[in-house]
Design goal:
Blueprint: H1 3-31, H2 33-43, H3 51-69, H4 74-90, H5 93-97, H6 111-123, H7 133-137
Helix pairs in contact: 1-2, 1-3, 1-6, 2-3, 3-4, 4-6
């Protein structure tokens, strides 16, 4: 296996694993909009979202995540996924700064390496060619 092949395989694995991780949260908006509403109220101080808006937002996110997973429109899909996850991660900053405080959970730290992976994928998006629609179209 050449260096390029190893890099492309690694980027593909990272892309698909991160997409699966993010898909769970997008599906939460579609399957359990009341839970998603509670998350928005607690972390984003937005409490007036209807279930219909959350379901619609979930479907939009699923589309973006699908484009990201497929390596389609890499600048835009990788950028959108990075921004979505950065906003979600930053909204939990109190839990990240004080992970052992009462009411906090160490699980919030799981978002940090995912954010790092998304930054790496965004920076290396031109090298992420394995099973990428955009890369296949440009050949």
């Amino acid at each position: 296996m050449t260096k390029d092949t190893r890099l492309e395989a690694s980027l593909l694995l990272m892309r698909l694993a991160v997409a699966a991780f993010l898909l769970v949260w997008a599906l939460d908006k579609v399957i359990a909009p009341e839970h998603a509403k509670a998350v928005f109220a607690h972390f984003y101080t937005v409490s007036e979202l209807s279930p219909q808006i959350l379901v619609g937002l979930g479907y939009v996110q699923i589309g973006i995540i699908a484009a990201f997973a497929a390596g389609f429109a890499r600048l835009w899909s990788y950028g959108a996924v990075l921004l979505m996850h950065a906003a979600a991660t930053l909204s939990t900053y109190t839990h990240l700064i004080h992970p052992w405080a009462e009411g906090s959970q160490l699980l919030f730290w799981a978002a940090v390496p995912v954010l790092a992976a998304l930054i790496a994928l965004f920076l290396l998006r031109d090298r992420d060619r394995l099973l990428s629609i955009e890369a296949a179209r440009s050949r």
